[in-house]
Design a protein that fits this description.
- This is Thioredoxin peroxidase.
- Thiol-specific peroxidase that catalyzes the reduction of hydrogen peroxide and organic hydroperoxides to water and alcohols, respectively. Plays a role in cell protection against oxidative stress by detoxifying peroxides.
- The chain is α+β, with helices and mostly antiparallel strands.
- It has a domain of 135 residues: 3-Layer(aba) Sandwich (Glutaredoxin), CATH 3.40.30.
- 32% of the residues lie in helices and 22% in strands.
- A seven-stranded mixed beta sheet has the order 2-1-5-4-3-8-9. Strands 6-7 form a two-stranded antiparallel sheet.
C-alpha cells in the first residue's frame, strides 16, 4: 500500500541528538514547520550504512538551506547509536554526525513505514515529508544498495519548486531549470524543446 500523500506515521522514541544528548523525540513536534527526510538503515557498526550516514551529515548545510530536517532510524538502541557516534570514523564509527539517530528497538517504526525485512532489520528506505506532515516521495533499496543522498536533495528541491511555481518537474529536472505546465499545451511545448535531450 502506497504511503504517498498520507500522513507520515508519527512516533515518539529515544534519540541521540547531534550534541550527544539522549532524549525522547516526537517526529511531528521535531519537524513542525519544516520539511523532513527520514531514512532507515539496517544496523549500527555495519558497512554500507556509515557511508550513507556520513553523506547525509556532510550535506546538512544543503538540507538546512532547504528548511529540511534529517532523521536516521535503525532497530538499534540509543546506547548503540551513542557508542557508534563516539567511535572515530577511522575505527569504524560515524563520529559527530549532525542529525538525530532514532532507536527503534521494538521495530514498530520500521513496520509502520513498511521497511521492516523478515522482522529483523530495516531496508534502506528514504521518506520525504512536506510541511503538512504528508509523505510526498519515498524510495526503498535492498540491503546491498546504498542510496544517493544528492537525489534526496534534488527531490526536496523539486517538491519546493512545484509548491512555489505550480509547475511539475519533468524527467531529470534539476534546480534552476524550467518546469512544465501540467496541461497538454505545456507538455507539448516542453517536449518540443527538450525531447532529444531526454
Amino acid at each position: 500500500m502506497s504511503l504517498i500523500n498520507k500522513a507520515a506515521p508519527d512516533f515518539t522514541a529515544q534519540a541521540v541528538l547531534p550534541d550527544d544528548q539522549i532524549t525522547e523525540l516526537t517526529l511531528s513536534q521535531y519537524l513542525k514547520g519544516s520539511y523532513g527526510l527520514i531514512f532507515f538503515y539496517p544496523l549500527d557498526f555495519t558497512f554500507v550504512c556509515p557511508s550513507e550516514i556520513l553523506a547525509f551529515s556532510n550535506r546538512m548545510d544543503k538540507f538546512a538551506a532547504l528548511n529540511t530536517k534529517v532523521v536516521g532510524v535503525s532497530v538499534d538502541s540509543q546506547f548503540s547509536h551513542y557508542a557508534w557516534r563516539n567511535t572515530p570514523v577511522e575505527k569504524g564509527g560515524i563520529g559527530q554526525i549532525k542529525f538525530p539517530l532514532i532507536a527503534d528497538i521494538t521495530k514498530q517504526i520500521a513496520r509502520d513505514y513498511g521497511v521492516l525485512m523478515d522482522e529483523a532489520v530495516a531496508l534502506r528506505g528514504s521518506f520525504l515529508i512536506d510541511r503538512e506532515g504528508k509523505i510526498r516521495h519515498y524510495v526503498i533499496n535492498d540491503l546491498p544498495l546504498g542510496r544517493n543522498v544528492d537525489e534526496s536533495i534534488r527531490m526536496v528541491e523539486a517538491l519546493q519548486f512545484h509548491e512555489e511555481n505550480g509547475e511539475v518537474c519533468p524527467a531529470g529536472w534539476n534546480k534552476g531549470e524550467k518546469g512544465m505546465k501540467a496541461d497538454a499545451e505545456g507538455v507539448a511545448a516542453y517536449l518540443a524543446e527538450k525531447a532529444s535531450a531526454l
